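Query structure, 571 tokens:
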């Protein structure tokens, strides 16, 4: 894979790189706000050392006004910094969400698992970390040097104590990272698995309820979920221990600074005001370390999410989209194609070759797991061959721009999924600029127009989530109309009659015949012999290889002679 060609990975890198400017501004705001925070210890120092000793009301008033002004500036700057980070989070979401959603959907089609939602969850994890308190603590941490420098200015011994405390807290932060990283990452992985299993169970709810599988399914889910909870609890316990140690160290350093300060006060080497200011400064200097350790879990999760997104984008196939190609005629050629699923070395199809002329109908038949559905996915460019080429009018279907390719291709998968919305919207492929005439034309071509008119609100009938208001046969017939919508030159139908009754079967055969009259090249995967009567050619698959290919009558005769079909008139 050419990394330079991975537009989605490049978009992720560009978006994160663009965030640097906002971080620079936030870092500047952190510097100014930390300077403003010096107002409290300086105010305390001046009040105790000058105002009380001089009993000057005017000095007290002026110092108080200056302190209030500094605190006002501090509040405004912190608010601006928060607004910048919130704006950054919204921009990042707006910039990357569509890209990651599209990538997740495409990745699910290729890798056969639902990942669009996980990609968006990863983006949310990254965004929450960037815009949360943890990032503010990281931005504040470098400016702790300001407070430590001021402590050295008050007295070198207090500065040294503060530096030693900071070093101890830094070591604790590293130990926290080393001890909790693997547990948090493993917990996240198990949480993803349990969520995916819950989604699978929800999609198969009817089978689970009908066959009493709920207890068994729940036990399996609970096992994965329990692992996640145990690991999270383990990491949280360790993190809590380190947080407690960090808090103890910080408070101990503050006590030590106050104690040492009091000693020097007694030795007349430091004023009372300096002692009080030292206690305030050291607490502020070490506070980012404590906050960072408390937010470490979010940092690890965000880092893992970024790594997962990057790896997913890097390892996904890249479509080398060409220019907007002209309307094809519908000539198909598969040239010595091999394909193996992701993670498998064994090909599901090997050395497949055949050609179809525009307007011809091919029936792909064969036993289960023969590679029939694989060919349908390769023909539509959903999957990419491991080697060889699948071409439509000479152009590689996988590299063809998807928005342009979809105008000329219709596809009906085995498991028909419809979107929440109306029948009209689903037939129109969720196109907002649909013309009613085009929808009706597709429905009539698919012989489903009369069925739709019998629905409660005909074409405006809401089908609900996953088409739940429709029967399986109705969903399949509406999916057929969707395949014929627009101006398709190639229509691929994978088991299009698996849920159809006799009326639906007849409507399907008429639709294929009508498509042939319009010079639509049709590829049908089916186990039912009735479909053979409308086929011009037959492709017989066996164990991933072409067992026979040719004109319908020739292949049928060959199958009869081999005893695959009875020696009677077929279909």
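Result returned for the query:
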């Amino acid at each position: 894979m050419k990394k330079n060609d991975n537009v989605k990975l490049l978009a992720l890198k560009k978006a994160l790189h663009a965030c640097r400017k906002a971080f620079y501004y936030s870092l500047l705001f952190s510097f100014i706000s930390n300077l403003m925070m010096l107002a409290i210890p300086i105010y305390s120092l001046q009040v105790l050392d000058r105002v009380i000793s001089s009993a000057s009301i005017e000095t007290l008033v002026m110092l108080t006004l200056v302190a209030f002004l500094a605190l006002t500036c501090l509040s405004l700057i912190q608010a601006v910094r928060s607004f910048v980070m919130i704006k950054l989070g919204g921009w990042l979401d707006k910039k990357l969400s569509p890209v990651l959603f599209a990538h997740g959907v495409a990745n699910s089609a290729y890798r056969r698992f639902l990942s669009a939602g996980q990609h968006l969850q990863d983006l949310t994890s990254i965004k929450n970390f960037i815009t949360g308190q943890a990032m503010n603590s990281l931005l504040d941490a470098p400016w702790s040097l300001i407070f430590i420098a001021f402590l050295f200015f008050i007295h070198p011994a207090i500065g040294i104590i503060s530096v030693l405390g900071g070093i101890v807290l830094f070591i604790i932060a590293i130990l926290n990272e080393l001890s909790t990283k693997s547990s948090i990452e493993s917990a996240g992985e198990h949480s993803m698995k349990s969520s995916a299993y819950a989604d699978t169970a929800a999609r198969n709810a009817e089978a689970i309820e009908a066959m009493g599988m709920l207890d068994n399914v729940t036990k399996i889910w609970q096992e994965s979920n329990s692992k996640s909870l145990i690991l999270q609890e383990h990491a949280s316990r360790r993190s809590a221990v380190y947080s407690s140690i960090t808090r103890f160290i910080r408070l101990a350093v503050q006590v030590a600074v106050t104690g040492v300060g009091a000693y020097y006060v007694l030795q007349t080497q430091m004023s009372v005001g300096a002692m009080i200011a030292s206690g305030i400064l050291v607490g502020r200097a070490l506070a980012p370390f404590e906050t960072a350790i408390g937010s470490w879990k979010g940092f690890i999760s965000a880092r893992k999410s970024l790594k997962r997104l990057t790896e997913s984008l890097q390892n996904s196939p890249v479509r080398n989209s060409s220019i907007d190609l002209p309307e094809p005629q519908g000539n198909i050629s598969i040239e010595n194609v091999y394909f193996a699923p992701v993670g498998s070395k064994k090909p599901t199809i090997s050395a497949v070759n055949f050609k179809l002329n525009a307007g011809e109908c091919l029936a792909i038949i064969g036993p289960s797991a023969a590679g029939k559905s694989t060919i349908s996915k390769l023909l539509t460019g959903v999957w990419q061959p491991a080697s060889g080429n699948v071409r439509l009018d000479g152009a590689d279907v996988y590299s063809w721009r998807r928005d342009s390719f979809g105008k000329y291709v219709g596809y009906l998968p085995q498991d028909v999924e419809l979107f929440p919305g109306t029948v009209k919207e689903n037939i129109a492929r969720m196109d907002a600029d649909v013309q009613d005439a085009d929808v009706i034309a597709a429905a009539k071509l698919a012989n489903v127009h009369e069925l739709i008119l019998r629905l409660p609100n005909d074409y405006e009938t809401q089908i609900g989530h996953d088409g739940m208001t429709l029967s399986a046969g109705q969903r399949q017939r509406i999916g057929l109309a969707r395949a014929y919508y627009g101006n398709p030159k190639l229509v691929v139908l994978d088991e299009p009659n698996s849920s159809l009754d006799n009326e639906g079967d007849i409507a399907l055969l008429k639709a294929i015949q009508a498509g042939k009259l319009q010079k639509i090249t049709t590829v049908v995967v089916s186990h039912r012999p009735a479909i053979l009567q409308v086929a011009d050619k037959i492709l017989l698959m066996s164990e991933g290889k072409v067992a026979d290919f040719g004109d319908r009558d020739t292949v049928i005769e060959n199958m009869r002679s081999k005893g695959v079909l009875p020696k009677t008139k077929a279909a």
